[in-house]
# Entry
Amino acid sequence: MELLLAVVAGVLYATGFYLLLRRRMAQLIIGLGLLANGSNVLIFTAAGLTRSRPPIVVAHAPAAAASFADPVPQALILTSIVIGFGVTAFTLVLARRVHASSATDDIDEIAAGRS
Amino acid sequence: MLLVLPIVLPMATAIVLQLIPHRVRLSRALAFAGALGILTTALALLVRVDRNGIQVLQVGGWPAPFGITLVADVFSALLLVMVGIIGAAVTATSFSGVDPRREATGYHALIHVLLMGVSGAFLTGDIFNLYVWFEVMLIASFVLMALHRTPAQLQAAFTYVALNLLASAVLLTAIGLLYGQAGTLNLADLARVWPERRTAGLDSALAMLFLTAFGIKAALFPLFFWLPASYHTPPAAIGALFAGLLTKVGVYALIRISTLLFRDGGTILYPLVVVLSATTMVVGLVAATGQRDFRRVLSFNLVGHIGFTTVGLGLFTPLALAGSILYVVHHMLVITSLFLVSGLFLRMRRTTDLAALGGLYRTQPAVAALAMIPLFSLAGVPPLSGFIAKLAIVTAAIEVRSYGLAFIALAVSLLTLLSMARSWEEAFWKPAPQGTPAAPIGRGLLAPILTLAILTLALTVGAEPVFDRCRRAAAQLLHPDEYIHAVLAR
# Structure
């Protein structure tokens, strides 16, 4: 399972960086999104996977010594998803504005139009 | 209690400001009072850190490695004081330097959100919390960057947003890997357990990831190209705020994380930081001499001088680090006032193109004299504050026999002097081109520059006590045992 998720994270990073290097704004934004999701999968995997052992202590039950799933990485991922959502929404609106003002989606042409 | 105030005060100010839109006078007074409030609490915090050592607050009463910790050592407290000063100066400038319609709808609130993010980043003792404060600061800066919605601003903002989001993704990757290996996010706890849990390969990989993430935010070579592409487009007050604060947060984070995690200097990190810092200085200043627009000259100078603020970390000696910390303080004051001076040009001549400026010495001799203080302080002309910080760095470089580095630092200072003297000559001394109307400038724009210039002179005269604190800050950073004990209470 770790191997599978590691490959998934790697593929997300690779496609994210590839899209970041493209010239179109829309692809760049998708690339940033993939990169953010790649890092989420990475946090989840790097912290270690524990199957079906939720970190919940049942009342009156003897405290099990066995390792629980670590809730911290999930909290981190949740936070970063929320932040990523807000930032992506802003970036999309910004890209729309840029598109409206320069009538192109090509980053090189936008830069050329500026000078 | 004092520790949360630099975060809670701007948050409360921002919320109240959002509740009173279109009450321009009231929101101006409130925004300025809020900035002064940050300054006051920061000064009180500095005094307390001076007297009682490192201050720690466990937020919500959760004990150290489990909850989020706020920590203030001398380094944090010094930088917080600068946040207050710059926040107040920029707010005061905005009263007459920003489009009134924007000012009425959320401008001051955004500035306070940004100040909150910066204060939080300086105070937090938790690495994931650091990432969150970075995001708070960035989202406020994104909106401020695109505030006037001119095509140039929007395009610059897009570059800025894309590069900063990339840096955030890299930072998040590093934090994930670090947590996977160390099992803790508390900085002091990380500093305690990392020497035992690290593996050689992961150690270097993390060092490079952190260097990339903070290098983009601090604008180190070769990751700085977003800065000169964007910093000259927003209104001068916002440019001044960004130039003074944002890159320094990257520098702060780089110094903080490196000194806690990579203490023995066994990694390639520190030699690499020295090389990158020296290259940043040279590339930044060589590029600055070729620029024709004052704000672009300033942007490249900003980049070049970031090298001085990180080189002390690379040299890793107490004197070098103290010199770099003093340089951060000095540079925050000076680059902010220079960007504000560019705002004067915009107001008087509607341009910062040096070729179109000129003759201002004849019409505005007082402004010309005032502008000389930050211009020549940036160049490090003795006895101004830039000289003292540079002297410390050059002395430290010679102490460790890095003669090449000392030479580069001195040569770069000469280039800065050249670039600053030329800017002054072109803007003030040379005759004005034909048919340039000179709009008058009000006291509202001059007062913040004058205040910052006086503070620069005060930093020159009172260099001794400030440099003492920089030495204490460097000692605390290089021997983090005090930090670890204070946070973990052992």
Notes: Chain A has a mean pLDDT of 86. The two ends of chain A are 51 Å apart (CA to CA).
